[in-house]
Predict the structure.
Amino acid sequence: MTALNVSIALPTGALLPGALRLLSRGGVMRLSAAELGRRLLVERSGVRVILVRPADVPAYVDHGAADLGIVGKDVLWESNGSHYELVDLRFGACRLVLAVPDESKLNGPETWPPLMRVATKLPRTAAAWFEGRGQAVEIVRL
């Protein structure tokens, strides 16, 4: 058995196919989602791939369970820890949307109240966005 040289935490879900393509193109490991099946740990040629929930990737890296990880920027922005982005891998694009009901009178920053209440799954990201625009906001975490 070959000694492990590196362990990589990969997110299950929507980013997994792109992460697997990246590992394959980089010559790190050729592995398809079909080959993985329901396995959460794969070891080949000195590389250990650990499949975890996207929100758990930073914790695996921060606590030394993985040497590095691939995860969406939204997860990096929302997590605490000493991790940082080595490189933008340029896949898995998403967008954040500020939405109100059709009947709302809010129609852009000029119509926002002095203090807005915003419900979001991305509280740190939302707070930073509003702060950058000088808008006071009460964040309700979903």
